[in-house]
TrEMBL record:
Residues 190-587 form the UvrD-like helicase ATP-binding domain. One of its GO terms (cellular component) is cytosol. InterPro entries: DNA_helicase_UvrD/REP, P-loop_NTPase, UvrD-like_ATP-bd. One of its GO terms (molecular function) is DNA binding. Signal peptide: none annotated. This is Helicase. It comes from the Bacteria. It comes from Nocardioides silvaticus. The keyword Hydrolase applies.
Amino acid sequence: MADQLADREVASEQAFVDRVYQQLERAGAAAQQLATEGHSRGRLGHEGGLVERDAMVFQAAKRIAQLDAAHEGLVFGRLDLAASVDEQPRYVGRIGLRDDNRDSLLIDWRAPAAAVFYQATAAEPQDVIRRRVLRSSGPRVVGVEDELLDAEALAAAEAEGRELPIVGEGALMAQLSRARDRSMHSIVATIQAEQDKAIRAPGKGVVSISGGPGTGKTVVALHRAAYLLYNDRRRYESGGVLIVGPSGVFMRYIERVLPSLGETAVALRSLGEVVDGFRATRHDEPAVADVKGSERMAELLRRAARQQAPGSPTEYRVFWRDDRIVLDRGALGRVRRNLMSQGRRNKQLPRVSAALLDAMWRQVRGERGREQGREKFDDEMLSRDDFLEFALAWWPPLDAPTVLSWLREPDFLSRVADGVLSTEEQRLLLKSWVSNGPAGSPGGAPDLSIEDIPLVDELRYLLGDVPQKADDERDDPMALIEGAVDIQELMTASDREYAPSGRAWAPPTHSIEDDAYAHVLIDEAQDLTPMQWRMVGRRGRTASWTIVGDLAQSSWPAPEEAAAARASVLEGKPNHEFHLSTNYRNSAEIYEFAAAYAERVGLPADLPDAVRRTGVAPTEIAGVADLEAATRDAVVAMAREVAGTVGIVVPAARRSDVNAWLASWPELAEDARGARAAIDSSVPPSGDDRVVVLTGLDTKGLEFDGIVVVSPEEIEAESATGRATLYVVLTRATQLLTTLS
Ligand SMILES: Nc1ncnc2c1ncn2[C@@H]1O[C@H](COP(=O)(O)OP(=O)(O)OP(=O)(O)O)[C@@H](O)[C@H]1O
């Protein structure tokens, strides 16, 4: 009986969904035609035609991208309202669509009219009688899940002859129990009321979203980005939206969510990729990372950027008429300080020769020289190769990696670090830079760590952009100091990131002028170091912000210092706080285990309620004699048990060993479910790899059906914040958790 009823409801929804898809096809054909028309106008050749073509192709391509993305579960919601409001059902989808009469067929989930779909509750039904979620596979409706919000209104509606049966077991539980794959999915159909409030918060100032593990902070923040783009497309698309997350693996995990919501005009960057033109994927060891992340590095770099370039000339001599002119250390030091006081170092390049000539002219005392005058003096000096070469060598254009490489010299470092860093801290820095051959190392490719990137950025701003030369001056370095031309490509942030072809990335300009975005969204914000806050802060001085995080998951050892850096970045911006309180990821059994750990080790944990029980408690195996055999048994069993992903979390020092084990286990290669193992998590795994090896830090923000933790006590001991890292690890599994020690 119940099945028949459900089948009938599915069939009736299918009829509506078919209508929507037909309309979508018509909209798609119209957009295609617009694109074709646009191209043929471009062939006319005149300039107006080209501009028009660009605009048309851009619009059409955008529409097409939106429509393609919409194909997955295009229609997902239906509201039946009290007769006094509207007898017709309202449908909610990923995009808005009108029928041929321009009447609304489908409401965009972000439109004000759709808000009630998320906000109505049984306590406050807001005229909603029944909320229905449609589950689909492509264009096929496979099920419906209803919620009755107002029983009295239902009785009244039925008395008037409307049929509103209630079927299904609740959309949320169905959604939460699904197997996890390698990407995060959108939650448009099941956004909960407290999440909806954060998503729809006004786009001014700072929206801070906090909550414990698995409360949907990341997924909510991504839906908020889509909401902002929908609501103020002009502002956010032209100004750009920057989304920053902890790692490349994490960015790949979340990258599908926004396109599936029809949005591609967004820059997704891991912390190692925030600065245009640089890409770091390697972490420094924790003790080094702690030094590089400290705000004290800003003072050290400020000093470094003011130093004379190591190896540059310290003296210039020339005879002119009756005078012997000498620019010695003292004189040069004065010129340097004077230039430095006028602004960024590279910006002074056009003034260098004039400043040197001023100092030199003051030494011209002889009558013959004075009579001939300053102009004659300047002309003669500027035609001397040795003078121009000196000027360029003394004040060369400097890029950030070059200045960073100066710090590899122990003497240089101790000079600029005096009173800022301890001897031990200086030693750690030297060790990291010398052993990894940083940028500028002779012959060695730059190997910057994720923690080096904020230092590079700090220096970019201290030095200013290296002037670009015009084409005909490429081979003439002198052009730089003789009134350099500052030619930059004119591109906005969104031009950079968004190409109509659907490719989300175009070459960056590398200029500090182009760093700014209209909205900055920081995920896992609890992990940002003070130097990272400064780096992202420069990208959002006039932006609105969304910041999500959970302090108990922090791996930064000095929370007060990070909080101060954050406060100074956001100073003067109004702050709106949102808190999420339900854990949607972990089974209740797994989260209880993790929460007990957090309490035991004294983490300041914000403990959400986990809503889904599986009846399976985590497995703790202690006193393991053969770690490889035990790991293999646990992983193989788990891969059989769950349909989705399995993560093996290991101490950083054991990662390559465990990778080698994994590669040698035939059981996994031949796994009946076709599981294949990704050999190394630092290499992007292909789509069907469902078993991966990760360090504790790698797991930030991710989730898996099953997690096997190898040697939790070693993960705990890896750094000063190892307990927080282990807490993160224990909160990654949706179904099964096993620990081996
Ligand atoms: N309303 C919802 N409907 C369905 N699934 C949801 C909902 N909210 C969250 N989820 C799911 O819960 C899981 C956790 O979400 P997410 O990763 O955003 O949480 P988080 O708070 O960022 O976690 P953490 O801080 O632990 O990294 C994801 O699988 C997400 O899709």
